[in-house]
Write a structure and sequence with these properties.
3-stranded antiparallel beta sheet; globular; binds iron/sulfur cluster
Amino acid sequence: MNMDVYKKLALKLDDLPNWFMATESGIELRLLEKIFTPEEAELAAEMFFVKEPASLIASRANLPEKQARQILKNMVRKRVIKFSKRERELVYGLMPFVVGFYEELLPRMDQELAELFERYFQETGGEITGKGLSVHRVIPVEESVDFEMEIFPYERASDLLEKAKSWGVRDCICRVQKKLIGDPCDHPIENCLVFAPIEGAFDRSDVDRAITKEEALKILNEAEEAGLVHTTGNYQGPHYYICNCCTCSCGILRAVVEFNKPSAITKSDFLVVIDGDLCVSCGDCIERCQFDALELGELVCEVDPGSCVGCGLCVPVCQDEAMVLIRRPEGEVLPPPENIRTWGEVRFEG
Ligand code: SF4
Ligand code: SF4
């Protein structure tokens, strides 16, 4: 197989803010080969993130427009490129790998794809989301935040769901992938929440199950009870999804613990504090923390501020109400970029 078309596409994907790192073994090309046919890869390599009409893409690729349209249509069906209607014509754009078309491969995820992804994850040292400003940010459990604190809309998972007009849920692709390589975790699988500012957005989806707002809020709650960390895009908004992550399966949190890359996720702007007068050193919170940020000191439990990501999952398990989330010292965690565009600009600068 001539891999040149996949090399060309890999370079194009690596030009996007999410990046698509090359490896010495070239495993990333095998991944692309599994996902794109050669003619799809050839055309995708001529596309940009900014959406354009098929005629422009066809002319750059030196293809008859009719043929290019058919290939674009196939890629839209496979959910590996994005499209929308602008005025009277369809426009098409390149999607990044992670977060991007990888998550859309859910219906096609099989053992081969799962193993290729795992090799890519290992060979990049967990840097599937590249370097620099992280792709995802932690959203704290709301009930864990000191009730006197002012909290921004992008820091409230329930607000993001409340403001949407339609909701869906899909299986977590990370847990599906880990299961397929024979290393499943015990956490629930169907809890990746998606939402949209228009009604009925998920009614015809073959990836997402359309649900009500109440069901979405219930899933959010159940995820907290299961000890899962809420995360979403590392910008203020608009947001369209909330992941419920664990360090055993999530491609981003695994980078934090397996490859000691704390910068793979941006912490929330909160930090847990423990009231030494109330703590009875029971150790319940230690079991809860996925980041080894807590340990029993001589008399009370102590937190390592450098390891705490401010998820707030430990707070509700403390029956002695000795824990609460407070704001970190000013400037320790930068406010997220305003939107995904400014996030991309910061990534390029970094
Ligand atoms: S759960 Fe509460 S009381 Fe128990 S060790 Fe943690 S902070 Fe202390
Ligand atoms: S100590 Fe652990 S569980 Fe608690 S908020 Fe920090 S990271 Fe989350």
